[in-house]
């Protein structure tokens, strides 16, 4: 099946010489949630802006639903909804009129039943006659999402959609995202809340310094890069590690009461059984043992921490 978004060797260099994207290729399947992660200035917003037709690439092609974003831009853009980072709304326009107006820009006729359903799903129905300048920041962001969905797009871009909103709204937004995915909408999101990506995404892409470092399913990424940490609570604190345990990769806590041991879950042998036996052989009594999987945040940091961004991403 043809991907709904086909990004083929996209590059972007600005007149200043800044290279925002360097030969990025990516295929996004219909109905999936792709989380695009990267530090500030990595190229995330530039890539989204190119796909949405807001920035012209220096090279390469992008197709949305088979439509080239430059040659067949009208059909391509009609398939896309975008929730930008910046909150830009007409301050004196009412919520419902703002959403109606955006729907009209895409050539869609009136559909009051759908507009009501959309506003209710985002808890905006009671605010439909309020002017946008009267809304809180979180409510304004809901309006942006409603506007992006006003024409029933097949692809939805969420560029830092929960930045600056409260926990309740964040949960409501992700419930809407789940419902949209269930309806077949393809969702591409950028977020600094990595627990959201870990919870929501089917695949995760990591971009840094304008280059796409990897794109993998979340489970495969966690399996390939994720490690587990064994935490061993000791019955009595140690002044230091015995000589017999110095080369076992153990880390002793500052208070001497806990040992830490990182191991690869994919290895044929983790060495845990032997380690516990060696502890017993050294006369070290264990009070408790627990394990913890590496988080997506830890994996992400391990990928980008050795590649500091040299360029600044130019806002669309």
UniProtKB/TrEMBL annotation:
Coiled coil: none annotated. It holds the Pfam family ABC_tran. CDD domains: ABC_DR_subfamily_A. The keyword Ribonucleoprotein does not apply. Residues 5-234 form the ABC transporter domain. SUPFAM superfamilies: P-loop containing nucleoside triphosphate hydrolases. SMART domains: AAA. Keywords: ATP-binding, Nucleotide-binding, Transport. One of its GO terms (molecular function) is ATP binding. PROSITE patterns: ABC_TRANSPORTER_1, ABC_TRANSPORTER_2. It comes from the Bacteria. PANTHER family: ABC TRANSPORTER ATP-BINDING PROTEIN. This is ABC transporter ATP-binding protein. It comes from Paracoccus simplex.
